């Protein structure tokens, strides 16, 4: 009989739930709006009731608790999203479906998908950097997603300011951290509210954004030396950004660290919106094999 695996990509706007076979042929996939746990999770449970899966891989918006020794392992922790703060996501799943689980962040899931099947295929390490409503990064090194006492929060690293940028920043905690200066809403606020996709391709806004994203790539390179940096998220659909990020990276790095050919090193996602769910399936299969 064909073995089936479950995947949940839990995002701030929607949950994607899917079931696939060993070869990742998707049997069914649904998208459930993220409202409150009582509503959203009821639909999630109902979806998985229909199948007998070997294991489930979950990649969730965060912050989440990934520390196996913690009493709140498997919880969504300090989110401002109503109803989800301190929600025992993994525990509620386990109560209903007694199978092995993989539990990680949304960006780690996407990083894993891109490493195994996407832009970083064949590599052992990569960073997946998403630039959308927020900024975040998933990190895979030596084929394993990086988790310590918690998970990396690359979106909130400190930035050196672009000399011509006087926008105060969008992060409620730090104002002008990476997310505060480079997320979609920051790009739009800096432009006086013009939607990011309506900003002309040759506008200074993109140069300023590229400067910050290049700086993030430089820091990630200096700390992790990944084999590839893969960009995802709505804002990264602006293709003109890529040559600008590479150019700015070269300028800011000043030749200190030799890197792979930048056209190959700083790239756009390959799996598009499927990166996360693909990563979840692969992590689920690994959890089942353990
Ligand atoms: P989310 O982060 O909520 O999953 P997105 O990755 O689409 O969703 O990020 C939303 C942000 O990205 C918004 O600020 C939106 O204006 C911006 N955005 C979405 N698509 C594009 C695009 N094609 N070009 C530029 N900005 C975009
Ligand atoms: Zn911040």
From TrEMBL:
Key words, A-Z: ATP-binding, Carbohydrate metabolism, Kinase, Magnesium, Metal-binding, Nucleotide-binding, Transferase, Zinc
Entry's EC annotation: 2.7.1.4
Stored Gene3D superfamilies: 3.30.420.40
Reaction equation(s) it catalyzes: D-fructose + ATP = D-fructose 6-phosphate + ADP + H(+)
The protein's name in its UniProt record: Fructokinase
Family indicated by similarity: Belongs to the ROK (NagC/XylR) family.
Cofactor: Mg(2+)
Lineage, opening ranks: Bacteria, Bacillati, Bacillota, Bacilli, Lactobacillales
Single GO term (MF): fructokinase activity
């Amino acid at each position: 009989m064909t073995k089936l695996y479950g995947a949940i990509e839990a995002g701030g706007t929607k949950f994607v739930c899917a079931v696939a076979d060993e070869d990742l042929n998707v049997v069914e996939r649904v998208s459930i709006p993220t409202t409150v746990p009582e509503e959203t999770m009821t639909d999630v449970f109902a979806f998985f009731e229909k199948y007998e899966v070997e294991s489930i891989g979950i990649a969730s918006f965060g912050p989440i608790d990934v520390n196996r020794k913690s009493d709140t392992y498997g919880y969504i922790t300090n989110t401002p999203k109503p109803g989800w703060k301190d929600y025992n996501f993994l525990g509620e799943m386990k109560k209903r479906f007694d199978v092995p689980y993989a539990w990680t962040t949304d960006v780690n899931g996407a990083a894993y998908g891109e490493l195994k099947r996407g832009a970083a295929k064949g590599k052992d390490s990569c960073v997946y950097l998403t630039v959308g409503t927020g900024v975040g990064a998933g990190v895979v090194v030596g084929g394993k997603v990086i988790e310590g006492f918690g998970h990396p929060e690359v979106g909130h690293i400190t930035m050196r300011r672009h000399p011509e940028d006087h926008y105060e920043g969008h992060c409620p905690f730090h104002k002008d951290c990476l997310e505060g200066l480079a997320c979609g809403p920051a790009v739009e606020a800096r432009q006086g509210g013009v939607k990011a996709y309506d900003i002309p391709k040759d506008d200074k806004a993109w140069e300023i954004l590229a400067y910050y994203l290049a700086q993030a790539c430089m820091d990630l390179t200096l700390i992790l030396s990944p084999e590839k940096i893969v960009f995802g998220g709505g804002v990264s659909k602006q293709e003109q950004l890529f040559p600008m990020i590479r150019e700015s990276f070269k300028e800011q790095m000043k030749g200190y660290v030799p890197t792979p050919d930048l056209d190959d090193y700083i790239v756009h996602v390959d799996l598009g919106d499927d990166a996360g769910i693909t990563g979840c399936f692969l992590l689920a299969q690994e959890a089942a094999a353990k």
